[in-house]
Write a structure and sequence with these properties.
The protein is of the alpha+beta class and 214 residues long. The protein has a domain of 56 residues: Head domain of nucleotide exchange factor GrpE (Nucleotide Exchange Factor Grpe, Chain A, domain 2). Helix content is 68%, strand content 14%. Keywords: Chaperone, Cytoplasm, Stress response. InterPro entries: GrpE (IPR000740), GrpE_CC (IPR013805), GrpE_head (IPR009012). One of its GO terms (biological process) is protein folding.
Length: 214
């Protein structure tokens, strides 16, 4: 019994000593941790300040934009826009002219046909009159009148009949279908016209079919 009573105070004393040691250790560690935290907090603002200073230094070191370069860039952009607009205008013009060209080719004969319509009307009248009266002489006169009217219209368009008889044979204007003996003409001269040739202004529209002296 005495032994147990003596050990209990000893154990209590040991526990008290351990608690005091733990408290002292915590007290010692707390200031150290607080000091490290304060040091970190103080270092952070310093780091931010350094970064800001570096940024200012980089901006200061960067060369300022040359106003001449900026002006040239604006001018180049304006030229590019004008070029795009000009290309669009040219494409529209090309499509429009192509359409006009196609329409012109399609209706190129409109003027001539319009001028020929009165002649067609006269042919119909002459034929109707000849059938009603039975007068062949009137028909001949009517056809002759219509032919002269037609020849006048074609002449206004630049059509002209070639003069061939008595002319030297020219393969550019004449197509020889036969060679004949002739006492009146020298060799190589057109002596007879089988089919008229025509010029349209300064171009051969149809060569004349002729007989040539041999």
């Amino acid at each position: 019994m005495n032994v147990n009573r003596q050990s209990e105070p000893q154990e209590a004393a040991q526990e008290t000593a351990q608690k005091q040691a733990a408290e002292e250790q915590e007290t010692t560690q707390a200031p150290e941790g607080q000091a490290e935290s304060e040091a970190t907090d103080q270092a952070q603002p310093a780091t931010d300040a350094d970064q800001e200073q570096d940024a200012h230094e980089q901006q200061a070191e960067a060369p300022a934009e040359d106003p001449r370069i900026a002006a040239l860039e604006r001018e180049a952009a304006e030229h590019q826009q004008r070029l795009v607009r000009a290309q669009a205008d040219f494409d529209n013009y090309r499509r429009r002219t192509q359409k006009e060209k196609e329409e012109l080719a399609r209706y190129a004969s409109m003027k001539l046909i319009t001028e020929l319509l009165p002649i067609v009307d006269n042919f119909e009248r002459a034929l109707a009159a000849a059938q009603d009266s039975g007068d062949q002489q009137s028909l001949v006169k009517g056809v002759d009148m219509i032919f002269r009217q037609l020849d006048q219209v074609l002449g206004q368009e630049g059509l002209k009949a070639m003069e061939t008889v008595g002319q030297p044979f020219n393969p550019d204007y004449h197509q020889a279908i036969m060679q004949v003996e002739s006492e009146e003409h020298e060799e190589g001269v057109v002596v007879e016209e089988v089919q008229k040739g025509y010029m349209l202004k300064d171009k051969v529209l149809r060569p004349a079919m002729v007989k040539v002296s041999g």
